[in-house]
TrEMBL record:
GO cellular component, as recorded: cytoplasm; endomembrane system; membrane
Record GO biological process: membrane protein intracellular domain proteolysis
PANTHER family: MEMBRANE-BOUND TRANSCRIPTION FACTOR SITE-2 PROTEASE (PTHR13325:SF3), PROTEASE M50 MEMBRANE-BOUND TRANSCRIPTION FACTOR SITE 2 PROTEASE (PTHR13325)
Cofactor(s) of this protein: Zn(2+)
Keyword annotations: Hydrolase, Membrane, Metalloprotease, Protease, Transmembrane, Transmembrane helix
Family affiliation: Belongs to the peptidase M50B family.
InterPro entries listed in its UniProt record: MBTPS2, Peptidase_M50, PQQD
Protein name: Putative peptide zinc metalloprotease protein YydH
GO MF: metalloendopeptidase activity
Record's subcellular location: Endomembrane system
Length: 742
């Protein structure tokens, strides 16, 4: 007995039987990928799925508890003559299969290792959730019975006739949106209104409900095509509760098109819901149903475009593209290939050959990994801006910034850890000093370029055309339009009457003052005859006050005659939209359009209402509306390039001749985004377009007399700023976007 033990101890480890064998309860199917059959193994206990390479599967079948590593290697060489495999490679394959949980052992003490592995996986998931607080996945339940009841009711939606009809309906909604895009955009609320209270709570609930429908779409499609779904749970997506549905069992389906349909089923349900919501919103009056429909359309459309349909994130679009290209684990392979490429070109580190990595299309894998990383940064940045903007009215914007900082720190820590693993990995060849020197030189040069080299760039400002030396005519006193004597485009002379207003209150007051003045005129004489000098002086002062007030009223009555201050051509002012106030009645009929329009006869004009403008000549100026943040970048006599929207092929040159002293509060309607203009505005109670950010006016004189220009034309002006580095440009934009205090 002692001799047998000694002999077995002297046997090489490669010749000892491997005490492992394949589990008999595994579900194995062969699925073709690019016309090559690959075994896909389902673990029914852990609900895990693995696609094995032919070498891995052959090793799995050879493990019977009796063969040694050398025996398995010899069998692999017989089956794959072109494969160069060593006993160490076989040991790595066996270890990988054992870590996947596909093998079992007849030896004692294996249970504790399995428990340790389960604990490690559990803590790994917790760490991943903490490192990504915007995407937290909670444990779920088995929805199999629920899906079995729902599939007969909704499974018909995945039949070809139903799919054609429903997608035609969705395409009709998109066509409707494209045709009436301007009308739809004008009806959209402002950001602060849409994401303000109480609509924010409705939006939050809508997101949760739409995503529940989305996930049930995956589950129903999975059941319809014969796969199983045993995991559904709660997920916090940007702090909004929703569901997730694990349809990994679709990997057991041989048809890749069925797998793609299952991946698209959630978006399929959401696009149908969004199409219905669009028509409901457009055809209903403002109210709860109208707001909820807009919420549904926004949530279903935006989340589908930014998250689900995009293959750069590991959501539906990614798995659909992976199935379409027939490349499982696309992102992990692309990320690994990017790391190998980076380490080779920058450090000279040659990674060991991985037999399971793709041998073709390396450039596309690297580009996909780079694009995926950049898009993840973009999504994180967009979510940060969204949270900052939504929380800012409640003075909680710092929470959004701190959350973004936490996410950035976790990403940075992950990059440092990966770099450390790369540098500490054992290797035979040393790091290339030449490549490290070249990489360092390029990095230092790019840093210097970003920080110290001025980079000219342009800024833009909206403008509209206005006659030179134009005189604006305003109503000096309020009144009703009684008569309109000129029309826009008419020639007038200085002092010519343009319109007549009527103010019954002033007329009554003038009559009353006339009577009062006549009556008061007798009092001084009466007190003089009574020899009362004090009473006489008091009566004379009252008479003077009445006379002064009477003169002032007469001047106001005279101001009801609107006259031209200079000779020239009458130019209509900015048009005012007609407002309809539900439930509000006023004895004063407000004007709309132009005050000089015939339909405004009898309309009430407030004091300082813009009646018209008088252009003394045919010369024009461009009136720039410059954002407050850009005001210091443009000085007097600086060159400006101007392009009118209606004449996009022409570019005019001009120079700044004057700046306004104070910022503008209201934008010309032509420049408002409500009417296709570039400036963000909010319509106030009087129908005026109030600017969302302060802007300043600047007058630009054309270098040469422009042709084909008319009053009111709009366009975009550009001016070059050449004194900022790339870092300054970025920091300026960052400060404008994230102006906050912790």
């Amino acid at each position: 007995m002692h001799q047998q033990t000694t002999q077995s101890a002297l046997v090489s480890t490669t010749e000892r039987p491997v005490p492992l064998r394949g589990r008999s309860d595994l579900d194995i199917k062969e699925i073709e990928y690019r016309n090559v059959p690959y075994p896909v193994i389902k673990d029914p206990v852990g609900l895990k799925y693995y696609r094995l390479q032919p070498e891995q599967y052959a090793t799995f079948l050879l493990l019977d508890g009796e063969r040694s590593l050398r025996d398995i290697r010899d069998e692999l060489l017989k089956k794959f003559p072109t494969l160069h495999v060593t006993t160490r490679d076989v040991q790595s394959l066996v270890t990988d299969l054992h870590e996947k949980g596909l093998l079992c052992s007849s030896r004692l003490g294996q249970g504790e290792q399995v428990l340790d592995r389960g604990r490690n996986e559990k803590w790994k998931k917790i760490r991943q959730s903490l490192m990504n607080p915007l995407y937290i996945k909670l444990p779920g339940w088995d929805p199999e019975r629920t899906l079995q009841r729902l599939e007969p009711w909704f499974g018909w939606m995945f039949t070809p006739p139903a799919g054609f009809v429903l997608m035609t309906f969705v395409a009709t909604s998109w066509l409707f949106l494209a045709i009436r895009f301007d009308a739809v955009r004008q009806r959209l609320p402002e950001f602060e209104q849409f994401f303000g209270w109480p609509n924010l709570i409705y939006l939050w609930i809508t997101l949760a409900l739409s995503k529940i429908l989305h996930e049930f779409g995956h589950g129903i499609a999975c059941k319809h095509f014969g796969a199983e779904c045993h995991s559904m749970g709660v997920m916090l997506l940007v702090f909004s509760p929703t569901l997730y549905c694990d349809v990994t069992d679709s990997w057991m389906l041989k048809s890749k098109w069925k797998r793609i349909i299952i991946g698209a089923a959630g978006m399929y349900f959401e696009t149908i819901l969004a199409a219905v919501a669009l028509f409901v919103w457009y055809n209903t009056k403002p109210g709860l149903i109208n707001h909820l429909a807009l919420n549904v359309f926004f949530v279903s459309t935006v989340t589908t475009v930014i998250f689900n349909a995009n293959p750069l994130l590991r959501y539906d679009g990614y798995y659909m593209m992976s199935d379409w290209l027939e490349i499982p684990n696309l992102r992990s392979k692309a990320t690994k290939m990017l790391a190998q490429t980076f380490s080779w070109w920058t450090l000279g580190i040659e990674s060991p050959v991985d037999p399971f990595m793709p041998t073709t299309g390396k450039v596309w894998f690297v580009l996909f990994a780079i694009a995926s990383a950049l898009y993840r940064w973009f999504v994180l940045f967009a979510i940060t801006i969204f949270l900052y903007t939504v929380l800012k009215p409640y003075r909680l914007q710092s929470l959004g910034i701190l959350l973004a900082v936490g996410s950035l720190v976790s990403i940075a820590v992950g990059m440092v850890v990966n770099f450390y693993k790369l540098m500490s990995r054992p290797r035979q060849d040393p790091i290339s000093r030449v490549k490290v020197f070249v990489t360092s030189t390029i990095a230092v040069g790019l840093t210097a370029l970003i920080l110290f080299v001025p980079f000219p760039w342009f800024e833009e400002a909206a403008f509209y055309i206005e006659p030179e030396n134009v005189s604006h005519v305003y109503s000096a006193v309020p009144g009703f339009v009684e008569e309109i004597l000129v029309r826009p485009g008419d020639r007038v002379i200085a002092g010519q009457e343009i319109a007549l207003l009527k103010n019954p209150q002033l007329i009554d007051e003038e009559v009353s003052l006339t009577v009062e003045e006549q009556a008061q005129g007798f009092e001084p004489e009466m007190y003089r005859q009574l020899a009362d000098p004090d009473g006489q002086r008091l009566a004379e002062r009252r008479l003077e006050t009445i006379e002064e007030h009477h003169v002032d009223v007469k001047e106001q009555l005279e101001d009801l005659k609107i006259v031209a201050p200079v000779a020239g051509t009458v130019v209509a002012p900015n048009r005012r939209p007609q407002t309809h106030r539900q439930g509000h009645t006023s004895p004063l009929q407000g004007w709309y359009g132009s005050p000089l329009s015939p339909e405004n006869i009898g309309a009430y004009l407030d004091e300082q209402t813009s009646i018209c403008s008088i252009a003394p000549n045919e010369q024009y100026l461009a009136i720039l509306l410059i954002n407050q943040s850009d005001r210091e970048d443009l000085g007097l006599d600086e060159a400006v390039r101007l392009k009118v929207d209606s004449l996009p092929e022409r570019v005019w040159q001009g120079r700044v001749i004057e700046f306004s002293d104070r910022h503008l509060e209201y934008a010309p309607p032509a420049l408002s985004n409500k009417f296709g203009g570039p400036l963000a505005t909010v319509t106030d109670a009087e129908g005026r377009e109030q600017l969302a950010v302060p802007v300043y006016q600047a007058k630009v004189e054309f270098d040469a007399p422009p042709e084909f220009l008319r009053t009111g034309m709009r366009g975009t002006a550009r001016f070059v700023v050449a004194e900022r580095t790339l870092f300054d440009w970025f920091w300026r934009w960052f400060r404008q976007t994230f102006h906050f205090r912790l």
